[in-house]
Amino acid sequence: MKLRKTVLVPFIAAATLLFSAPAALADTFKMAVGDAAGGTQWELGTAFAKIFNEKTGGKHKVELFPNGQLGDEQDTVNNAAMGLLDFSILAINNVTPFSPSVGVLTLPYVIQSAEDAKTLTQGAIGKELTENTTRDAGVRIVGWAYSGFRVLTNSNRPVKTLDDLKGLVIRVPKNEIMISTYQAWGVNPTPMSWAETFTALQQRVVDGQDNPYITIAAMKFNEVQKYITNIRYIFSLEPLIMSEQVFNSQSPDVQAAILEAGREATEHSFKYLLETEDQIRKDLTAKGMEISDPANDEKEWIEKATTSVWPKFYKSIGGKEKLDAVLQALGR
Prior knowledge:
Helix content: 40-55%
Number of strands: 11
Number of domains: 2
Order of helices and strands: HEHEHEHHEEHEHEHEHEEHHEHH
Largest sheet: 5 strands, mixed
Distance between the termini: 50 Å
Mean pLDDT: 92
Low-confidence stretches: 1-25
Strand content: 15-25%
Shape: globular
């Protein structure tokens, strides 16, 4: 029953908040934030809200609703597409089901550094993916949060090799690329919504999960997880999406303010990651978490993931040439 209550509360809140007024006419915009206050999503959202308010001379405000108060991350995409929600910040893997070409950014080991992530999101590749998302999902990407690599956590034992991983029950998002990656590593993962994850870890329904350091800290996963493995298979990008219906209903001046605030908040997010991640790692260690690196420079993990997973998703991302273009943009 506890799991059911955990899931229902956000939807009850969402129903009350979403239908209280027509979103397009609001002076105060509502922004869903999947993570708790204090994480990368919150940092991006609060920066955007401040900048947008300043650029509109205080006429427009953005109110943030963290911790999934307005529903599961994928549900916020639907709500924004229908014009029932103004903004949402969510993990990119929760956009991929609605706009599959974005999945190129979640293929394992494509992004190998924060600079790679910035190059892709702020260059020609990012522009094309933004256009695709508007067309496919009815939402517009107006900003990006950079959260760092998704590292593996678990409550059972140190994990350094794929053999160590076997037998662990690992939660993953409902994302086919991430599911296929764990399968390539010899694990059958458990797809689960973000809203259920902490409770599932707490009750040992699952043994582990993967997320960036900053998310692990914000969600207080150190209370229910002991071990961290520094895998670098996905760099976590968290787009700030806006309802295209709501965007189109705004005046040209407000539209310009939204786009400018998104660009400036994106730059802020990148700097924030670089300035805080090392300290967050130290803080988690001080709280009792044990950190390990994968054996042999992660070579076995990389080989199995790239050779097995990449070809499966060429079609969904728009063809192998799309991946080739991404790798070329990164100088590889």
